From TrEMBL:
Native species: Anaerosporobacter mobilis DSM 15930
Xref: PANTHER family: FI09636P-RELATED, URIDINE PHOSPHORYLASE
Catalytic residue positions: 205
Catalytic reactions on record: a purine D-ribonucleoside + phosphate = a purine nucleobase + alpha-D-ribose 1-phosphate; uridine + phosphate = alpha-D-ribose 1-phosphate + uracil; a purine 2'-deoxy-D-ribonucleoside + phosphate = a purine nucleobase + 2-deoxy-alpha-D-ribose 1-phosphate
Taxonomy of the source species: Bacteria, Bacillati, Bacillota, Clostridia, Lachnospirales
Protein name as annotated: Purine nucleoside phosphorylase DeoD-type
C-alpha cells in the first residue's frame, strides 16, 4: 500500500517515527543508533528506515523543510501506516535571551505565522500543543541523562528569510524560545488524527546574537536530542 510519497508496505514502519527535516540525518541515525536496519523508503530521497534501539522497534524518516512537506509525510504515516507517535527532531534558531547554541528546546506549544489551521475551518485561533505523555517522558529522559532542556513555546514559521526584520523581536516579546518551520503543522495533524507528536530541537544558531554551530559540529551536537527521542520511542 504505497502512497505517492512513501514506498513502505504495511508493517514496514514502527509505531513511533523519529522525523528530522533532513533525510541524511535520518540515515545518520539509522547508521549510528539502530540495529537490524531496513530501508522502507527512497522516494524523492526522503529516506525512511526501521530498526531496533535497545531492543525496541523504531523508525526514522526525513520530513523535509516547511509545513507543507512535513504535512504530507506525517499525514500519511498517521493515516495510512498506523503510526501512533511522530517525534520531530530538528535544528532551530534561538530567540530567547537565555537560549544558547547547542541548547535542547522542547516545543510544549508551537505558535505559527502559517495559515495551516485554515483547513479545519475553526471558529477561532487554534493552539498547537505537544502530546503531554511524550513531553513528560522526554523531560524525564533528559533528566536521567543529565541533559538540560528548555521546555516552552516555539515558533513554526513559513519563512526562513523574512523581509520584515522586526518579526523575531515581536515573537520574543511573547516569550518564544526558538524558531523552526514544521512543529505547528505536525501538532495539528496529530491532534486531528487523534495521535501523538512532539518536537525536540537543538539550537543551531541564534537569531539575535548571530552565534552559530560550525557545520562539522552539527551532527555531534544533535546527539543529545536524538538520544532523548530514541529513549522515549515505544
Ligand atoms: O533541521 P531541520 O529539521 O530541517 O529544521 C530546521 O531547519 C530547516 C531550515 O534550515 C527547517 O526545516 C527548520 O525547521
Ligand atoms: O528554521 C530555522 C532553523 C534554524 N535556524 C533558524 O533561524 N531557523
Amino acid at each position: 500500500m504505497a502512497t505517492p510519497h512513501n514506498a513502505a508496505k504495511p508493517g514496514d514502519i514502527a509505531k513511533t517515527v523519529l522525523m528530522p527535516g533532513d533525510p541524511l540525518r535520518a540515515k545518520y541515525i539509522a547508521d549510528n543508533f539502530l540495529e537490524d536496519v531496513t530501508c522502507f523508503n527512497t522516494v524523492r530521497n526522503m529516506f525512511g528506515y526501521t530498526g531496533t534501539y535497545k531492543g525496541k522497534r523504531v523508525s526514522v524518516m526525513g520530513g523535509g523543510m516547511g509545513m507543507p512537506s512535513i504535512g504530507i509525510y506525517s499525514y500519511e504515516l498517521y493515516h495510512f501506516y498506523d503510526v501512533e507517535s511522530i517525534i520531530r527532531i530538528g535544528s532551530a534558531g534561538g530567540i530567547g535571551d537565555d537560549i544558547k547554541v547547542r541548547d535542547v528546546v522542547i516545543g510544549m506549544g508551537a505558535s505559527t505565522d502559517s495559515n495551516y489551521a485554515e483547513q479545519y475551518k475553526l471558529p477561532g485561533t487554534y493552539a498547537p500543543i505537544a502530546d503531554f505523555s511524550l513531553l513528560r517522558k522526554a523531560v524525564e529522559a533528559a533528566e536521567e541523562k543529565n541533559i538540560k532542556v528548555v521546555v516552552g513555546n516555539i515558533l513554526s514559521s513559513d519563512h526562513f528569510y523574512n523581509d520584515y526584520e522586526k518579526t523575531n523581536e515581536l515573537w520574543k516579546k511573547m516569550n518564544i524560545a526558538a524558531v523552526e518551520m514544521e512543529a505547528a503543522a505536525l501538532y495539528m495533524i496529530a491532534a486531528r488524527a487523534n495521535k501523538k507528536a512532539l518536537c525536540i530541537l537543538t539550537v543551531s544558531d541564534h537569531v539575535f546574537t548571530g552565534e552559530a554551530l560550525p557545520a562539522e559540529e552539527r551532527q555531534t551536537s544533535f546527539r543529545e536530542m536524538m538520544e532523548i527521542a530514541l529513549e522515549i520511542a515505544d
